[in-house]
Amino acid sequence: MIFWLIIATLLKQLVFSAAIPLWHGPDEQAHFAQIQYYAEFKSQFINDSKLSTTSQEVIIAEELLGTKRDALGKNLFTHNPAYRIDYTTTTMGTYESLLQNLPVSSRTHLIAKEATVYPPLYYILGAFAYLLTHPASLIDRVFAVRLVSILSSLLTVWLSYLIGKKIFVGNRLAPVTLATMVSFQPMFSFLGSSVNSDNLMNLLFTAWLYCAVSYITQAKMTKKLLTIWMAVTLAGWITKPHFAIVLFMLPLLLPGKIIVLAFIASLLLIFGLKPTLRFS
Questions:
Q1: Among 94, 103, 141, 262, fewest CB within 10 Å belongs to which?
Q2: What is the model's pTM?
Q3: Cβ-count burial 191-204 (b if 16+ within 10 Å, e if not)
Q4: Where residue 275 falls among pLDDT bands split at 50, 70, 90?
């Protein structure tokens, strides 16, 4: 059953990806801008707040499609749920021809600072998909990178199924049900069809949970499991700093009294650091 669920998830994600217009995914233009920078310049960002990071190509597409933000962070869709981009009665979009024929120089002409500044793992993977379709138009390159997110979604669903098998031992239906609930969660479908590093973080966090469940169910730590667990944690850290939340979950995996002691130590640590916290 899991095979057909993966096939159904793939088809669903492809349909979502085809139906979602350019830059309509959550902060898609910002994530794509960082991928484009990595692919075109073969380097990470220079740590200088005055330097631009987003190409003319991305900005032109934003302006045409109504997603360009003003100084207050608002675009034509903000507080305006009735707004729609122009549609045509043919298979060619209003601005599609223009977007397909933007000059190659616009890819490396940086004119704005909108790209994300997250750690590099997702953007390096996305850069490979970008470079495979480098001669193609902006639309083609965006959809090529979206395939990286779709692959992450498929692997997340598969890992959810494996987690279910470890939790619901002997039950054939429950693991598939768990994976189905993950696959058809609306935001998961939407996010997993656009360019966003959250897709890789979701995959790695699910992998981390799989390692945790494996440790709990087998009641021992093997070298292989420890190695995989550490690799997943490192990969998560270089995908998004938010992955650090797993550090607060580790005490829950400790036996008996150690959990209580770890919880108390965490509270002491938190309150001990409180006077030094700064909020901006």
A1: 103
A2: 0.87
A3: bbbbbbbbbbbbbb
A4: very low
